[in-house]
Prior knowledge:
The chain has about 250 residues and is an alpha+beta fold. The protein contains five helices and eleven strands. It comes from Ovis ammon polii.
Amino acid sequence: MVDRLANSEANTRRINIVENCFGAAGQPLTIPGRVLIGEGVLTKLCRKKPKARQFFLFNDILVYGNIVIQKKKYNKQHIIPLENVTIDSIKDEGDLRNGWLIKTPTKSFAVYAATATEKSEWMNHINKCVTDLLSKSGKTPSNEHAAVWVPDSEATVCMRCQKAKFTPVNRRHHCRKCGFVVCGPCSEKRFLLPSQSSKPVRICDFCYDLLSTGDVAACQPARSDSYSQSLQPPLNDVSDDDDDDDSSD
Length: 249
């Protein structure tokens, strides 16, 4: 089915429409063999709060961006190669329902669909695209993924020292290895995580000690399916007011 669509005029038109919606700031998306599988609005759990984002699933990449004018204009385009993607379902929790994790070596985050059926369709299509890509390339699924950042609202105090309270002056930071929200004194060190950055990035003291001794396995990301159920008390750093992919603290 996908192979038949790859060279169809209808598929080319659909991809051109997506390119035009992102405008000159977006990257070209039309390449031989690429097929637009589907699209839709998902709620992305960002650092500050959940936000609506437009997602486009192709047979080899996942693209998303901010919605400026629905179906007409998007900005802040992000492209994720599907061969590096793994996904995990998230348990429903309060108002956050029908969610799953999108995990890659460079970035991981949670998204939520409007209905359980929509969630199932998205996950099934993503898994099939990933499986087909890996089958064609002969590669194995990635077992490394970046931490999913705990949202700012989940931590009123540092999740490491459990003492420092966050204020406009004592601001939140995120450990790039575990995703915890931590205070400045608990995250003064930097460590090179090649899959995330070519420069050393901020990590908490706990992860720094483990990484320095080579105990990488013990330094696990904070969230596997639902961080708020696993942290007592509630227990990224990227500014997420526009979106959440800057590398600032």
